[in-house]
Amino acid sequence: MALTFVLDPPLTPRLREQIVDLWVDVTNAGGAVGFVAPVTADEVRPVAAAAFAALSNHPAATHNRTEGEDTGPDRLLIGMDDDRLAALLLIIDNRFELKAHWRVLKRVMVLPGSQGRGYGAALLREAAEVGRALGLAGLQVTLRDGHGLEGFYAKAGYRVTGRIPGALRVAPGDDRDEVFMWLDLH
User: Fold this and answer.
1) pLDDT digits 0-9 by tens, 9-48
2) Fewer beta carbons below 10 Å: N end or C end of the chain?
3) Which residues are CB-neighbours of 126 under 8 A, at least 6 positions away?
């Protein structure tokens, strides 16, 4: 089944919990999305709340926000498989005028057990289409080395532009490179 993509969906309480659950599931399945397994929903929830607060004030994204609640320049792209959240990523604004022409993809997640169905590739294609619609020059993604993700992103057109050796300490004695990849949208 193909995913249905939604940019800036209403952040209902149900969707917020689905995002936290997906984040926990991806992390605990070995995904590199900001945590090291094992992780609980209680650990993810504050990080997710900060991400939600930084989302765009696009009308769909502000649905169910309380009056005066902050909104930010970031965007949320989700992929639904029927009524189940199956994929998501955040499109992060650089918050710097000289970098306003490109964005960073963060928290790229696909429901564990769904790999091999093309969901990840479809999510990246949709993100590229969103970027083009926004008039962006490119998209950057950073990843934790050691997960074999460089090849996945390369298939989607991304190329390695840099690497910081040992930048990410996932455990004592286990430092991983942070890899920067770029997709030119022109």
Assistant:
1) 999 999 999 999 999 999 999 999 999 999 999 999 999 9
2) C
3) 5, 77, 79
Question: Do the beta carbons of residue 120 and residue 86 sit within 8 Å?
Answer: no
* 3-state helix, strand and coil shares in percent for the chain, rounded to the nearest 5: 30, 35, 35
Mean pLDDT, range 122-131, rounded to an integer: 98
Rounded Cα distance, 75 and 108, in Å: 13
Q: How many angstroms separate the Cα of 111 from the Cα of each of 5, 58, 76, 102? A: 14, 26, 16, 27
Rounded to two decimals, the pTM is: 0.92
Pairing of strands 138-144, 102-110: parallel
Higher pLDDT, 103 or 65: 103
From 121, 77, 78, select the one nearest 103 (Cα to Cα): 77
* Closest to 84 (Cα-Cα) out of 173, 14, 182: 14
Q: How many helices (H) and strands (E) does the chain have?
A: 5, 7
